Amino acid sequence: MNFSKIIGQGHAVAALQSALSHRRLSGAYLFAGPAGVGKRATAAALFCAVNCESGGCDHCEICTRVSSGQHPDLIVIEPDGRFIKIDQVRALAENAAFPPHEARARIIVIDGAETLNLSAANALLKSVEEPRADTHFVLCTSAMHRVILTLRSRCQLLRFRPLSDQETATVVSAQLAAAGRPELTQQTKANALRLAEGSPGRALELLNGDFLAEALTLAEQLWQMLITPSASATFSFSEPLGRERPRVAETLKLLRLWLRDVMLQREMGGDRTATVEALRGVEALSNTKLRATLWELQQAQTALDANVNPRLVVENFVFASTSV
Ligand SMILES: [Zn+2]
After folding, report:
1. What's the domain range around 95?
2. Residue 136 burial (CB < 10 Å; 0-12/13-18/19+)?
């Protein structure tokens, strides 16, 4: 791993490279930004930059072990369940007091720093405040405001941003190729990119398993309910969705993105064929009706976020949209 492989995070990478060249690497960083945009990969690239003789060559013993997640001095701590527990932190703090096993410098990544509660954060504080010269902490978070303030204020903040669709596509294609998987169809790729909103990690998650395919089918079915309203069809569609909050969330989001595409195409032109194909019959819909449906979709998403039963959300959405 090396910095040239980090796509779309030029600002964070430049800050780290500059610190390295001035030998002023901070004892603790906070990498803040959406999930799946390269925070951990950047920490790994930093480790290779410090420890590999060529600054990250990809084939020496150090780089190979980093790629396979096996280097004992690149330590990653993640939540055990919903939280990073105080025992995990205590073990880590004990470890961090000793020199690295074999590397020039050790990097301790704490992924999900927002899940450290007050006592766990306090247990970590001293290590982060006065780390050994050969130990650097990298706290990663997708919810910076939830990281305990005393801890946050001890770290140098580097922001990570969502990637552009083009950048996301580049990372996703490279990862799929590395895993020996075939290139995706245009439509699958377009939908995965839309739902991922600039997070290659999220896009890859969607492409693994059936999640995306299911969300696509559900969104198309939901669309059919709007085009050919039928109360009984709506009930049998929504019935199994009572416990499927994430799936319903993705389905609503997909439908909203599709409809927004149709609006954009009508107003500004451009080719959004993939979207229009999924929405059979959309041509017959007036702009007013489209806007009303988009508004109802937004209401449905708000209700879902507010913990309303997903089944009810779907039913209310269909009935409200077909009665407008
Ligand atoms: Zn190397």
Report:
1. 3-159
2. buried
